[in-house]
Design goal:
Elements: H1 5-11, E1 32-36, H2 40-46, H3 51-72, E2 76-83, H4 91-114, E3 118-122, H5 130-143, E4 150-157, H6 159-175, H7 186-190, E5 203-206, E6 225-228, H8 238-249
Parallel strand pairs: 1-2, 1-5, 2-4, 3-4, 5-6
Length: about 260
């Protein structure tokens, strides 16, 4: 965990009444925070806007979440951007999201360079439009040497499909004589997931008040702490992140053990 104390204090100045940087123990900030970004459509509908405007507004919250995570010294920030089930949405909305992914990444690359952020993706990117895939690859290539925080986006991601994919790969290794079936354990499975090489999330945040995982990181979230806020994603701010971390720090993590 690396952070600049002066930048941190400047970033979290003018705190609201209920939360401030002093409420967070910087020695116990979670290493990996993952966010299910939910509520863009409801945010727009409540304002008499098209759902697409909610997705556009959500980009500002994502940018702030990245900067906030860097300032706090997180090792990994991951977000659920587009699920395998999201293809069922109206074609107009899907097209907008694909375009938004590409344009946003291009616009945010200077931020990733400035903050030394390394980009990563979870999910099957082969189903995405060529333009989107090319921009994603550009982001991967240009940030590959960065050694600061990892920012991972789950795009065309579904956890059940991810686990099934890992099982197929392991089965193929056994069939090819490259692995003994008896060696397939939890570490072997984890090594074939999209998240391989990254720590499991310490904290999962879900916005908009929904109480479900939506097929997200089912394997990796086995011992993560959950924080659900009614705040819709476009309204999620640095202060909401502090509230989530404060809640996380109030808990005792036992990982199945007893005190």
């Amino acid at each position: 965990m690396r952070y600049d104390e002066d930048l941190l204090k400047e970033y979290f100045c003018e705190a609201p009444k209920d939360i401030s940087l002093d409420d967070v123990d910087m020695a116990r900030v979670p290493g990996h925070v993952s966010i299910i970004m939910d509520g863009n459509g409801r945010w727009a509908t409540a304002r008499g806007l098209d759902r697409s405007q909610g997705h556009v507004a959500g980009v500002d919250s994502l940018r702030e979440a990245v900067t906030t995570s860097v300032r706090l010294g997180l090792d990994v920030l991951s977000v659920y951007a587009f699920s395998t089930e999201n293809w069922k949405r109206p074609q107009k909305e899907v097209n907008l999201l694909m375009h938004l992914f590409a344009t946003t990444l291009v616009h945010e690359l200077p931020l990733f360079h400035q903050e030394n952020v390394r980009l990563r993706f979870f999910g099957d990117l082969t189903a995405l439009p060529v333009e989107t895939r090319e921009v994603f690859q550009k982001g991967l290539d240009e940030t590959a040497d960065h050694d600061g925080m990892t920012f991972a986006l789950a795009v065309n991601y579904g956890s059940r499909a991810e686990i099934a994919r890992a099982a197929r790969e392991l089965a193929a290794e056994v069939a090819a004589g490259e692995r003994d079936a008896d060696t397939i354990d939890a570490d072997a499975v984890a090594g074939h997931l999209y998240t391989r090489g990254l720590p499991d999330p310490d904290l999962l945040i879900r916005t908009s008040g929904e109480l479900r995982l939506s097929n997200y990181l089912l394997w990796q979230l086995a011992y993560s702490e959950f924080y659900v806020t009614p705040t819709l994603w476009p309204d999620f701010s640095r202060w909401d992140m502090l509230r989530a971390i404060k809640s996380y720090q109030s808990r005792e993590r036992r990982f199945g053990g007893v005190k």
